[in-house]
Amino acid sequence: MAEQKIFAGPRVRRIRNQEGLTQTAMAAELGISPSYLNLIERNQRPLTVQLLLKLASVYKIDLEELQSGGDTQLPQLKEMFADPLLAGELPGDQELVEVSDVAPNVASALLKLYRAFREGQDRLTDLSDLLAREGHETKLSGARLPVDEVRDALERRPNHFATLEEEAEAFVKLLSPGDDLLGALKGWLRADHGIVVKVLPVATMPQWRRRYDRHSNRLFISERLSPYDQLREVAMEASLLRMRVAVDAEIAELKLSNDESRRIARFELARYAAHALMMPYRAFFEACERTRYDIDVLRSRFRVSFEQAANRLTMLQRPGASGIPFFMLEVDHAGNRFRRAGAAGYPQARFGGGCPKLPVHRVFSQPGHIAVEAVEMPDGAVFLVMARTLEGPQGAFQEQPRRTALLLGCDLAHRDQIVYGAALPGTAGDLLKVPVGPACRVCERAGCLARAEPPITRPLGLDEMVAGLSAFDFG
């Protein structure tokens, strides 16, 4: 096998500059001519094995470092240029390889500058949330991915689309599904659009939940999904066909900035319409009132999942038939928040949802268990919250699918209307409340054992004579 040639001119030049040597002096120490060293530094000659060993011996350097160059910086540079602010600036990775290899110090400086920029953006976001809670409207925003733009647009507004609700009720009336909505949807798709629904094994659909093949006019659903999620996927496809005009009108109302954002919004609104089909508004609202919003009873009655029924609770805001104004938050076991909604918009300013003491993080150790708590914010607002893990797509033996948990909350004033209120110990006067905050960066609770970051509003208390309960004590 032929030896791989090693061209490392910029790295050799960097060693020479660090040692403060001229080409003539370094060539003398390596036992080569200055002209040959000049060719090496310009990548016109490769390094021989003997020269590599001589470099390592004379200048006490690691051969691995000399051969790998700036490879350790390359993934970080790729991550930096994936930011929406810089996306599209580079046609490929070759320029990043060259920067990392030829100018590693410049690459390191760029990475430091980018980290400082991201830290500044995070602080601006936290500060914007803090000002919003105090009643000050801000326009602080950074470069956002399309998915972030859609999430922001949906979280700010009530999770209720009246037009889609009306369309869904008319669709259900047309279908007359009885106890078999899936069968009715399959029949409608075949009769009106010639689409056949087929469930395929994991090996055939390794990466998709749902895929529509226009050539064969077939809708494929992954067997990974539970029966409830399979029904939702079919309902989403049917909704996009039946309610396209209504969905497009709602997307236009969101005033999104680009086609990618509108495509993502179409998916989210199709999901909303599917829930409206599976749990028709009037029937679901009346069942909520009778069962006192018992999600397990509701999921059994409407043959849906816990997540679907809990999600539907945040949509009940029809004038004259409004339910309790719930809000919800879905996170994974690493704390990533990726779905937030509320009957009046997600209460980011009042509730936040970034506190590590919320039960949504604890329930991962008790899958399927519903944890109920009363939590008190720093301003005295008290919420009733319940949390439970969710069942996602079924993974194969060696796969590790992401598992998530859902937090559903409302103002504590609705305690007596909800079955979960009975799980809270004590009466209104002596109710045990867990002190939480919106997020560590904007929370000023002193002595918090769960604090993960210092507040941006207070200086750290750097007293060598005193050590507090948190690593981020502040003055």
Automatic annotation (TrEMBL):
<comment type="similarity">
    <text>Belongs to the short-chain fatty acyl-CoA assimilation regulator (ScfR) family.</text>
</comment>
<dbReference type="InterPro" id="IPR050807">
    <property type="entry name" value="TransReg_Diox_bact_type"/>
</dbReference>
<dbReference type="Pfam" id="PF06114">
    <property type="entry name" value="Peptidase_M78"/>
</dbReference>
<dbReference type="Pfam" id="PF09856">
    <property type="entry name" value="ScfRs"/>
</dbReference>
<dbReference type="InterPro" id="IPR026281">
    <property type="entry name" value="HTH_RamB"/>
</dbReference>
<dbReference type="GO" id="GO:0005829">
    <property type="term" value="C:cytosol"/>
</dbReference>
<keyword id="KW-0804">Transcription</keyword>
<dbReference type="GO" id="GO:0003677">
    <property type="term" value="F:DNA binding"/>
</dbReference>
<keyword id="KW-0805">Transcription regulation</keyword>
<dbReference type="InterPro" id="IPR018653">
    <property type="entry name" value="ScfR_C"/>
</dbReference>
<dbReference type="InterPro" id="IPR010359">
    <property type="entry name" value="IrrE_HExxH"/>
</dbReference>
<dbReference type="Pfam" id="PF01381">
    <property type="entry name" value="HTH_3"/>
</dbReference>
<dbReference type="InterPro" id="IPR010982">
    <property type="entry name" value="Lambda_DNA-bd_dom_sf"/>
</dbReference>
<feature type="domain" description="HTH cro/C1-type">
    <location>
        <begin position="12"/>
        <end position="66"/>
    </location>
</feature>
<keyword id="KW-0238">DNA-binding</keyword>
<protein>
    <submittedName>
        <fullName>XRE family transcriptional regulator</fullName>
    </submittedName>
</protein>
<dbReference type="InterPro" id="IPR001387">
    <property type="entry name" value="Cro/C1-type_HTH"/>
</dbReference>
<dbReference type="GO" id="GO:0003700">
    <property type="term" value="F:DNA-binding transcription factor activity"/>
</dbReference>
